[in-house]
Amino acid sequence: MSGTIFALSSGTPPAGIGIIRISGPQAGMALQALAGALPEARRARLALLADPRDGMPLDRALILWFPGPNTVTGEDLAELHCHGGRAVIAAVEDALAALPGLRRAEAGEFTRRAFANGRMDLNAVEGLSDLLAAETQQQRRAALMMAEGHFSRRVERWRETVLTLSAMTEAALDFSDEDDVPDAGIEARIRDDIVALVRDVDAALTAPSAERLRDGIRVVLAGPPNAGKSTLLNHLVGRDAAIVSDVAGTTRDRIEVHAAIGGVAFLLTDTAGLRKAADDAIEAIGMDRARMALEAADIILWLGDPAEMPREDALLIAAQSDRRERDDRPGLRLSAKTGEGMDRLVAALLERAARMLPGEGDYALHQRQRHSAELVKGHLRAAGTSDDLLIVAEELRQARNAIDALTGQASTEDMLDRLFAGFCIGK
Ligand SMILES: Nc1nc2c(ncn2[C@@H]2O[C@H](COP(=O)(O)OP(=O)(O)OP(=O)(O)O)[C@@H](O)[C@H]2O)c(=O)[nH]1
Ligand SMILES: [Mg+2]
Predict the structure, then answer these.
(1) Residue 224: nearest ligand to its CA?
(2) Range of 51's domain?
(3) 26 phi and psi, to 5 degrees?
(4) 50-89 burial, b if ≥16 CB within 10 A, otherwise e?
(5) Does the beta carbon of 10 lie inside 6 Å of ligand 1?
(6) What is the pTM of this model?
């Protein structure tokens, strides 16, 4: 994990520009070896890069020099903005590899160094990972909030508060040891502060789920055979993802389709029509799968009898409205043929989704973060409800451990290996 690393940090060549980053103690030496002299710190300069082995020109590039520790990685850092041709990048990388102490970076190694040097905590790293993977504008906004450290700073405040509380508890314990008259208010203050902190952790836990944001809100279309479920799915995703026919029981398995609707990621699931008795074993399995999908649904579109709605909050759809002259069915009137009601359906989906997803300026929490924050809360609760100062002190210590797990200060190499392997080379 040590040494000076380099990698192409921009996209795969050929491209207009290829940015090679170099990070580590030899970064300045490497830049000097190729460009002749170090440019002024944090100022772009045009330079002719030459191969230090034979002095032959490599490329004319814009070079940047960022002396550590105030850099993204926390180390000395250099950037070469070369022409983005394959041979150019290969030649520059080759020249760098030949320098003493330099080697090619592994996936995510720049970010890992930033983490190791305390430039970002695990929460920010995860935000960055989500930012790179973001496909919808909403994912981008929430990931940026996380990557920018909005959650990290909140957790840091928790940590400071817990440290202060621990110190106060120790002081109160000393008093009681000495049989001195303790500051009467101190225990009450500890308790009050713990209650306030629990409230803030609780508030943070109401943040929407990052998994939902990433994988899409799960919308399940269900109802009896021939209701028009597959037709509706195809309309929503704008292509023929599911087979449509007038044969009852056309859809036999679950069909999952990812779709961005109004900038929001959805995972739409078409299911086999539900009826009392199945014709054969396969249909029975299909119906079981439909029921399982319904259990996991965030939003259900029910195209069936209102009396048989699988869940109270299902969105009732009166489908194929064009086929009825007089339609007094309850629910949202919808026709795949005339397009009636499609706008309203999309609006209803977006409105419900908005309640499950981060709003403007909010971040979302991953399962890992939620789990650790729950642990923090549990220990704080235990501390706040105990009359025994020794227990209060111990629970506060445990809360601090849980906070360290949340920020990654207490994470294992294994876990970090897995996380950073998911990054691209050059990040
Ligand atoms: N006129 C009209 N026909 C529709 C509409 N929606 C679906 N249909 C027709 O109704 C029939 C059944 O549609 P599907 O979408 O296959 O119904 P389904 O609910 O998926 O049925 P299963 O997969 O068998 O459970 C097909 O012939 C469709 O063309 C609609 O809004 N108007
Ligand atoms: Mg179908």
Answers:
(1) 1
(2) 4-116
(3) -95, 10
(4) bbbeeeeebbebebbbbebeebbbbbbbbbbbbbbeeebb
(5) no
(6) 0.81
CATH number, residue 279: 3.40.50.300
Kindly state whether residue 51 falls inside one of the protein's structural domains: yes
- Which pLDDT tens digit goes with each residue over 317-375? 999 999 988 878 899 999 998 999 999 999 999 999 999 999 888 999 999 999 999 99
Tell whether 363 is covered by a domain: no
- As a whole number of angstroms, the distance between CA 298 and CA 304 comes to 18
Pocket test residue of 244, 269, 302 for ligand 1, highest count of atoms within 8 A of CB? 244
Please indicate, yes or no, if residue 189 is contained in any of the structural domains: no
Contact in structure between 236 and 303 (CB atoms under 8 Å): no
Ligand at minimal distance from the CA of 334 is 1
Q: Return the CATH number at 18.
A: 3.30.1360.120
- Contact 244 CB / ligand 1 (< 6 Å): yes
Q: Is residue 295 part of a domain?
A: yes
Instruction: Kindly report, residue by residue over 310-331, the tens digit of the pLDDT.
Output: 999 999 999 999 998 887 889 9
Where a domain ends, among 326, 356, 386?
356
Cβ neighbourhood burial of 291 (10 Å; 0-12, 13-18, 19+) = middle
Q: How far is the CA of 309 from the centre of ligand 2 (A)?
A: 18
Ligand 1 centre distance from Cα of residue 18 (Å)? 52
Residue 341 in contact with ligand 1 by CB distance below 6 A = no
Last residue of a domain, one of 295, 322, 356: 356
Residue reference for tokens 């020794």:
390
